[in-house]
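FAQ: What does a multi-protein file look like?

Like this. Sequence, then tokens, then the next protein.
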Amino acid sequence: MAVMLTTEALRKLLAPAALAVTLGLLGYAAFQPHTPAASRDPHPRVAALDTTTSSPYWTLPPTANPPTGSTVPANPQVAMDTVQWAQVTYPGSCPASTGITVDQVSFAQPDPSDQLALALVQCGSGQEPAGLYAYEGAASVTNPTLLQALIPTSEDLFATDFSVQGSEITIQVMSGSPARTGACCNGLAYTLRWTWSKGEYRPAS
């Protein structure tokens, strides 16, 4: 036997269910975090799909490019034991016709942070005034960086070799000029010493 419901009876039957749904929606909305309109980003960034992997994760684009810089040193150096010392242009007053003869090159490390080369040269190839020079680094095999002229050739001293022990340099010289400090006359032989201190060689007492 069919049951016929009037419109009024149907409305009374559905009213409690509609009320329950409405109350449920209101309760859900009440517990959601509220973001003030003023704090919302007017230009939100768009997430980009990370296509580098097969994972379906999304990543945000970077906010700034990483800093870039050259890895090539501004002043490239070569090892001082590769310098062609016979082809170096030394300071001094040797005549162009005589040239320079390299008598000795020694390497020194007067302290842990400094590596130097010491070159003893003379004008020409005979008994001529000597020059003793200290170098730190080299821009090329013919261009070492001069640190000190310990004995310029203009001082008219003669020498054939020197010794390096730790932070000290010792050299036996012969004076060709009475004007040289410590020399009383031509042909006087004496010893010169330098000790490394504060980034340079200084005469030792």
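And here is the next protein:
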Amino acid sequence: MPPRLTARQMFIAGATLTAIGTALALVTDGWLALIFESADFPHAVAGTIATLLREIAMTLGLVLVGGSVVTRSLGETKATE
């Protein structure tokens, strides 16, 4: 079964998700510190959700960028044979 994404599409999607994860990290760190100082339970849950979303976006983005590099190098190896 052929892959659904090309190496270029994987790289673009990975770079976008990594940028989103980075932006979330920059934006949410400040207000997470304020939320956890108050230590209200609903705020702590919201902070945990925001932290999970940014970690998932960053990790998936980096995996896609790495996968695109591997896919491109395997494609070039096949083309030279």
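Q: Is there any per-entry metadata?
A: Some entries carry free-text notes. For the entry above: The helical segments are 7-38, 41-80.
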